[in-house]
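Input set for joint prediction.
Command: fold jointly, output tokens.
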Amino acid sequence: MFKKGLLPLALAGALVLTGCTDSNATDPNAPKDDKVVVGFSVYDMQYEFFQKMEKGTREAVTAKGWEFKLHDEKSDENEMVTGAQALIDSGVDVLIISPFKPSALGPIIAKAKAKGVPVIVDDIGGGGAPYDAIVISDNSGGGKLAAEYMAKQIAANGKTGKNVASITCEPSAVYAARRNAGFKEAIEKAGFKVVAELSGNSKAEEGYKVMKDILAKNPDVAGVFACNDPMGVAAANAIKDAGKSPVKDIVAVGFNADPEALTAIKADGLAATVAQDPTAMGALTVKLAEQALNKTAITFDNAAEREVYNPVQLISKDNVDTVK
Amino acid sequence: MTTTDTRTAAPEPVLADRAERPSLGRLWDTWGITAILLLLLALTPLVAPGFLQLENLQSVLRESAYLGIVAAGMTFAIAAGAFDLSVGGQLALVSVVTLLAYGAGGTPAAVGAAIATGLACGLVNAGLITKLRVPPFVATLGTLFVFRGVAYILTQDGPQTLPYDQIGSPFVKIGGLNVAGVPLPFVIMLVVYAAAWVLLRRTATGRRVLAYGSSPAAARFCGISAGRIQLFVFALVGLSVGIAALTYITRVWTADGSAQDGFELKVIAAVVLGGTSLKGGKATLIGTFSAVLLVSVLNDVLVGQGVPSAYQRIVLGCVLIVALTVDGLRTRFAVPGSLRRAVAGLAGRSTDPDSA
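tokens >
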């Protein structure tokens, strides 16, 4: 990392001092027409999730012998539009983008269309723009995994209760809502009943309060699923504060494999979570980019929204040590 | 401490002297940052081969406009010895209201709403400062949160967005059109700067702003109303945000309460980088204009060359510090011969480490 940063720093330093000397070197950026150039505009390289996504994308691009150009949106919609459009101007053959603001994809895709550059969106959302494909985690499948684990764990705990609860994110989070929907469908198939489905607005403190209410009204619930980890861990804390175990008494499952959730799982403070795989998502976008470039048909999991799902993984105490 | 102060403490030398002998220092005040910009422009193609491509240049100019237009307004505020810290909140609020108005009444409504909302924000600030006697720093810090808060309330169900099917509308053209190859936002910026220059240099109002910023007490004795000056500059900043928001929102197509977080500091940094004194009384629109372009060009080169974002921030910070250091040295040795005397003095009494 440090080594990688040195050259640009030196370059920047040279710029500041306006003392640039070696200038007649051959132009390394001259376009080579036979080589495919992939531009990737990333949400923000400060976050581990997007660092992994960038790694997956970059490695898949270089594995094909293509050229990779990165742009960091720095969590800024202005930088997102300017930088992604600059990538298109610089002559990339395909644009992959994890948009900071999906609603700002419009001007970017308008420019890409004008230049005939396909656009693959990686996660976050499509903002209703005419992108070629969007890769998202299999949220519904993740909810299903959580339900299957919960049913198994409740049986292993020797509990006979058939009531479970579900805590949702804010209503506007469309993809996150699919987690609770997938959970509900699978858990009902296993013979359980969702007696409470309440929103904690993605926030830990609200998740805690919602779980308290659930425990007050339905003390017999055997499990709870939360659509993100802050709420999942908070719900598990509410269960602990009620004198019960979130693994052995009321099975609490979160979503996202946040570090706090992994720590909690190791300490029996949470039963399980569902991990997304940003590295694999990055690789998948490159595969779709190739299909879009070759004009071969992309197989969508949801054709109406041009969505392609990336598989997720259930993390419990059995495999939590394998997660980095 | 005091040996050279008798000279440097008088910021304005005799007027006749000023008119007759344009010193190098005075030239630097107005054109220094422009010279650095030109130097950078000359060197950039060697570092970043893609920079000179027409589309990249258009992109730089198009992207500079919204920052530049607000910086023109802010130059007046700083010249009057005040800040407007609320411009980021104003930009978010104006952008959100403009998109709402576009949804309701199309392009004319959106343009009208942008100007009206910007002016209204400026008048709120001016009212707080002149009627309630809140210091500008505090008043605009407060309204920064209030304006953003209102923008958040208006976007509770998600950001306001220009739908993709509006791609052909005249409103989108404000941000996307090129006039003879020059992006329309930049043309608007040029017009704003021309008007601002006339206002500052060729009208009594402009001179009053400078006089007030130079010495509020002296200006009051000359019959200049502090309230009017403040009303004028804060309304002007609001108006500039209204215009800037039009060039911003038609490029980015979306806004919510968090839009352009930290914008106020970028604007103030550009104005100060340009050579306008934070102490008030001294303003250079040419400097502000060049500083805005300098920041944009640097940003474009750093992003284009794949410099990690942390280093981009460091470089821009260092540029600001270097510019102000140079300016500080310049002010310190402003009087002809003072540098020579200071060096001689330093050699003479090396025990005194600080002669300024």
